[in-house]
Each structure stands twice: as structure tokens, then as C-alpha cells.
Amino acid sequence: xxxxxxxxxxxxxxxxxxxxxxxxxxxxxxxxxxxxxxxxxxxxxxxxxxxxxxxxxxxxxxxxxxxxxxxxxxxxxxxxxxxxxxxxxxxxxxxxxxxxxxxxxxxxxxxxxxxxxxxxxxxxxxxxxxxxxxxxxxxxxxxxxxxxxxxxxxxxxxxxxxxxxxxxxxxxxxxxxxxxxxxxxxxxxxxxxxxxxxxxxxxxxxxxxxxxxxxxxxxxxxxxxxxxxxxxxxxxxxxxxxxxxxxxxxxxxxxxxxxxxxxxxxxxxxxxxxxxxxxxxxxxxxxxxxxxxxxxxxxxxxxxxxxxxxxxxxxxxxxxxxxxxxxxxxxxxxxxxxxxxxxxxxxxxxxxxxxxxxxxxxxxxxxxxxxxxxxxxxxxxxxxxxxxxxxxxxxxxxxxxxxx
Length: 404
Hints:
Strand content: 5-15%
Largest sheet: 5 strands, mixed
Number of strands: 12
Oligomer: single chain
Strand order of the largest sheet: 1-2-8-5-3
Helix content: 25-40%
Low-confidence stretches: 4-96
Number of helices: 14
Structural class: alpha+beta
Distance between the termini: 35 Å
Mean pLDDT: 76
Radius of gyration: 22 Å
């Protein structure tokens, strides 16, 4: 998974102070504004011999407890202004400058990105695979191959995904069957509470409570004390370093239910589906709509990536949301398809981490409990789920008609 900060990300962005560095990224051959037809325009070749050096001071701070400032880094001069890509000598004559003439990469934090980041992500993947972002104060990677590599490369530090080795070493043995039992019980209790309503919001009435309630039940916190304790002592007792994953699991579950309920044919297919098919749908939702859009790492050495070399000691922003929709890795990447033959996701790593186990169990039993308590459950007339968010992303509401 990408890791998520231990605070509510929708409340604002705090300064993390990664360093400011000049960008010598590469350009694309696709004109600006050309629609995506599912085939990537020719990508520039990697230039492993060219090392990009730091041009600015570095500020201290843990990128997972304090997120980057929106304020641009101070430019270091016209010849090395961070975030700007300049044509190489002779590039214009050689015809390698993008026909659009664009020399400045868009930022994942640009206005409008909270509602629709996908156009920005596409431009970054195709034209600026390695670029310095002065708003994030970090180097930005957006292609699947780069992001997937960084998440498991030992040369990148500061953070882990639940399920990855650093995470696994932080946990004691977990009783998977006990987690399954408490997840199932909690999901059915919550589903029955809203079954008789004419209308309900699954985000507020279900997704917000299931991850917290599961942890509370697992560690023996009384139901009346659930929300008071579960985000602190109780969560930590179960999940160690992954205690903060409760908020991320809420968002992941909201996106999952939104994806399923938006397609009546998929609802029919998953209503009594075996666990394996539900797990495929869950993986597909994590790929297409990951709860954490941007993960932060720091290099301990120079690392070659698409478009150049990331210098040692640099902050790197991984666009997990962009990587999951990379057409070089996934067929029809914008389409939600649990039956695809090229599945994959970057939110969670392998292993028996409680956060990984609970997230999958919550998705499975959420569907089973909701469809059992509300056989005719559907989205309210005229309602379509809309995801929002920059660092984390999910629908803010899922208005449904429990009785059909």
C-alpha cells in the first residue's frame, strides 16, 4: 500500500520539506490535449548515464507524518528552475521536442486534480516520467514500472506498505480465522442497522464503521467505546505500525462498493460469488481507485529510473494512482474489470499483515452482509459515486436505496 499519513488527509496538507532540485526530465511525442486511445505514444529511452544533481537545500521531516507544503520551492536561477524541462541541444532540429511545445510538467496538486487527476497523470507518464515538482518538493514518478520497483527497492527508505517485509517484522502472529469471524459479525450487524431505511449513505453508515468496528471487536473494545479508542490504543494493539490504516481501509472500501454498485451486471455476478471472485474485484478496485494516491520515499543512493537518475538523498513522490492506470501495464486501464487477465495492485504488499488481511475480509463480508440484509440494494436514482482527494481518494458518499 502504499502508506498513508497518520492523520486525516482531507483536512489539509502540511509541510514535509523534501528538497528542491532541478528537473532534467524527458519530453513526449504526444500533442497536448490529444485524447487517450489506450496506446502509449513512444516513450523516450532511459538515460542511465546522466545524473541529476540537487540544486536546493533539504528540510527535515518525516514525509509520512507531515505532508509537503503547497508553496513552491525557491527557484535556483533561470538555468535550473525546479519543475522546468528544457529541450536538449539540437532537440528542436531533431524533432524530439513535443509538438505541443510544453516544457513545464503539470503538478499532481494542480487545481482540478482533486476531482480528476487522470489527465495530469497521463501527461506525466507520457511526457515527464521523471520531473521535480516544486509544490510537492519532491521528484515525481508516475509509471507503473518505476513505482512498483521503488516500493520494494532497498535504496528507497522512509515508509513501507502493509505486507512488505519491514511491516511483517513489526507484527506478532495473527489469528486469521479470528479476524474473519469478527469481520463477518461486524459487517452483518452494520448491514442490519440500515436495512429498513428508505435511503442510506454507505460511506457514513457502513464504510466509516466497519474497519473501526472490526479492530475494536478483535481487541475486545466494547462497542460503545469503539470510536473513542479504536484509532489509538486499540488499533495499535492489533496492527502495530499499521494502526493508521483504518482510515485508508475506509476509503478503499468506499471505492470498492462504489465500483461494484455502479454496474448492475457486476452486482448480479458478485451477489452470491465465491470468495475468489470477490477478491479479484477487490484487487481490481485497489488498482483502478487506490485509497492512497501519492506515497513518499527517500533515496539512499542514486537510482536509474525512466527518464534519468534520481539522486541520493532525494524525496520521491510515487503516483500510485497513475501507476495503476498505466496502459503499458494494464489493458483498458480506466475500465473496472474484475475478470481481467492482467490483475495487479500497489496498495498492499504480500504477507500476513493484519491491515492486509482485514482489508480483504472487510471487502468480502461487506458485500455478503449488504446483499443478504438488502437483496435489492442499489444506488439511489440519479446518484453516481464521485471520488475526490489528492493524497488519499475515495467517494465522500454512496447514496443507496436499501429496498431497491
